[in-house]
Design a protein that fits this description.
Layout: H1 5-17, H2 22-35, H3 40-52, H4 56-69, H5 74-88, H6 93-113, H7 118-130, H8 134-147, H9 152-164, H10 168-181, H11 186-198, H12 202-215, H13 220-232, H14 236-249, H15 254-257
C-alpha cells in the first residue's frame, strides 16, 4: 500500500541500517512528507534526512516533534536517542554527558515499547559504555547479539569492551566474528591487529593492518599501529616513517598520540 507510512519509514530505515543504501533510504524518507507532511512518520523522515546532511539542530527538532506526536512509536524515541548520541560526538564536558543521558533515556523508552529491538540495545550499549557503565553496556551488547547474531557492529563493540576489560580471548573471538560478517570494516581489522600485536602475533597483526590500509589508505590509526608493528619487529626506520604518516593523517596527531 503506497500510503502505509510505517512500512515506508521502516523500509527506508532498513535500506540505511541493513544495506547501507542511503540513496534508497533518502527516497523513502522524502516520500513520507509527500504522503502526509503532518504525521509523526514525516517528522521521522525529516529527522533522518537531516542526519544524512549533518544538520543536527534540524534533526533534533524533527526527532523531538516525532516523539511528541507519536509518544508510543518506538522509532520516534530511537531517532531522538540517535540524534543525541551523534551530537554528543561534537560536544565536551557537561554538555556531552547531558546528551549521552538523553540518548540513554530515549533508547530505554524505545526498548520499553519494543523490547526486541537489537539496534536500540546496540546503541544504548555504546552510550552506556561512554557514560562509564561498562556492565550495563556489556548486557546491552549481549542482548543485541541474542536478538540478531548477524549484527556485526555489536560484535565489534562488544569485542572492544572486552579488550578494555583485559579479556583478550573474548575480544579476539568477537572481533573475528565481526569481520566474518563485515570483512570491509577498517575499524575491525585495526582493532583485531591491536589484540594480535599485544599477544605477540606479529604476522597476524601485519595481515590485518595491511588489509585496513588497503581499505582506507587515509586512516591515521592504521598508520600508527603499522608504526608500532615495525618497532616490535625492530625496524626503527619503518616505525618512524609510519608514525610520521600517522601524524600527518591525523592533522596534528593529537588523536594518534592519545
Amino acid at each position: 500500500e503506497p500510503g502505509h507510512l510505517p512500512a515506508r519509514y521502516r523500509w527506508g530505515l532498513a535500506q540505511v541500517l541493513r544495506r547501507s543504501d542511503n540513496a534508497s533510504g533518502r527516497e523513502a524518507f522524502e516520500a513520507l512528507r509527500e504522503v502526509d507532511p503532518d504525521s509523526a512518520f514525516a517528522d521521522l523522515g525529516a529527522a533522518f534526512l537531516a542526519i544524512f546532511e549533518k544538520r543536527w539542530a534540524d534533526a533534533e527538532a524533527a526527532a523531538s516533534a516525532a516523539a511528541a506526536k507519536g509518544p508510543f512509536l518506538p522509532e520516534a524515541h530511537f531517532e531522538r536517542g540517535y540524534v543525541a548520541q551523534r551530537r554528543s560526538e561534537q560536544a565536551e564536558g557537561a554538555e556531552r554527558t547531558d546528551l549521552l543521558r538523553i540518548a540513554d533515556q530515549a533508547y530505554s523508552r524505545s526498548l520499553a515499547l519494543r523490547p526486541g529491538d537489537a539496534w536500540s540495545h546496540g546503541n544504548r550499549g555504546i552510550v552506556r559504555e561512554l557514560l562509564g557503565r561498562a556492565d550495563e553496556a556489556l548486557a546491552d551488547y549481549d542482548a543485541a547479539l541474542d536478538l540478531d547474531p548477524m549484527f556485526s557492529s555489536a560484535w565489534l563493540n562488544r569485542g572492544l569492551l572486552r579488550w578494555a576489560r583485559k579479556d583478550a580471548p573474548g575480544a579476539l573471538a568477537d572481533l573475528t566474528r565481526s569481520l566474518e560478517l563485515d570483512p570491509r570494516s577498517v575499524r575491525g581489522h585495526t582493532n583485531r591487529a591491536v589484540v594480535h600485536l599485544a599477544s605477540g602475533r606479529l604476522d597476524e597483526a601485519a595481515a590485518d593492518l595491511e588489509e585496513a590500509r588497503r581499505l582506507d589508505p587515509t586512516d591515521a590509526l592504521t598508520a600508527y599501529h603499522l608504526g608500532r608493528l615495525a618497532r616490535a619487529r625492530g625496524d626503527l626506520a619503518a616505525a618512524r616513517s609510519h608514525l610520521r604518516e600517522a601524524l600527518r593523517l591525523a592533522a596534528g596527531g593529537v588523536e594518534v598520540l592519545e
